[in-house]
Write a structure and sequence with these properties.
- The longest helix is centred in the first third of the chain and has 22 residues.
- The protein is built from seven helices and no strands.
């Protein structure tokens, strides 16, 4: 869970829901498992609500840039087919996308540009190097370092 307060809120909501629907408890299982089921649903509801209101602060104001970034997200599979996916999985993907975007925005501009041009836009390294005014070898180094940063972020 996100935090101690978040967990407390989920438990409190589950207890309130259990109290309000106490007449529906049929005694087929233990009270503990019945309460756990209610808590699981409340946690699921919180994740769904959190994902629904997640802001895409990482998207630039420039419309073409935002369109490119969303296209990149779709190609990387972080958006998913929302019609058939579990809301928790969608939320998890959105959070990963947010972390990737933050890592990209925290990178040095030259490293970020080399990575986006070569990996995201799939441009040849020579073209990227010429566009950035650097050697092809330096382009490979920048892309390698950017990938390394993204992999380190993924492990966190």
């Amino acid at each position: 869970m996100r935090s101690h307060e978040w967990a407390e809120d989920a438990v409190q909501e589950a207890l309130i829901a259990a109290y309000q629907s106490r007449a529906s408890y049929k005694g087929r299982g233990s009270v503990r498992s019945w309460l756990r089921g209610i808590l699981d649903h409340k946690i699921h509801d919180r994740f769904r609500a959190e994902c629904h209101y997640t802001q895409a602060d990482w998207i630039d104001d420039d419309a073409s840039s935002a369109e490119e970034q969303l296209d990149w997200a779709a190609r990387c599979g972080v958006m998913g087919d929302r019609a058939n996916e579990d809301p928790m999985e969608i939320c998890s993907r959105r959070q990963r996308l947010s972390r990737v975007a933050k890592t990209l925005s925290d990178m040095a501009p030259g490293m970020r540009e080399a990575f986006i041009l070569q990996v995201v836009e799939d441009r040849p390294s020579l073209e990227v190097a010429n566009r950035l005014g650097i050697s092809e070898n330096n382009c490979w180094i920048r892309v390698h370092r950017a990938r390394k940063k993204l992999l380190l972020q993924r492990e966190d």
